[in-house]
Amino acid sequence: MSVTASDLLKMSRSGLDDVFRSSPPGSIPNGRSNGTAIFFPGSWVGVIPRWLVRLLVWKGKFFRRGDQGSSLKNLITPFAFHLFEAKVYKDDSWFADGEAVILDYSQSSFLVSSIRDEIRQVADGLYLGQVFGEEARPSVYVGVSQLTTAPHDHLDEPAGREGLQGRSR
Asked: What's the pTM value of the predicted model, to 2 decimals?
């Protein structure tokens, strides 16, 4: 199934579940990515929180692959500060059969240490993620698009208005 970012934003929770279950983990992303939180999937009610979070709180993630393991930092605030580091690796999904790319915040700040994200690649350069908190069921879906920048490029470049789609270099 080929899916676009726009498709994800229109899907119900069960539709997102199906896409996540049927998608491969993909490779571990590298470089800056734009992100969009998906609240109240499939409902117009989620548009305002999604817009506010994107504007004021969370812009996406910055992934770094390395020989000693991979990691990421979240791009927080309108200034896209690099905060809240997570270890990134492949492991069994808590939600679906098979592997997912795990974003493990357990060694990070106490503010986010109970969070585990799982992402799977749903299209070329497009990942669908689930955010797990204390509960076993994901609380929020996220869409993350991988940009093909080198890990050291464009650290201070604004994320722009690409939303989930991103742009290639």
From this structure: 0.82
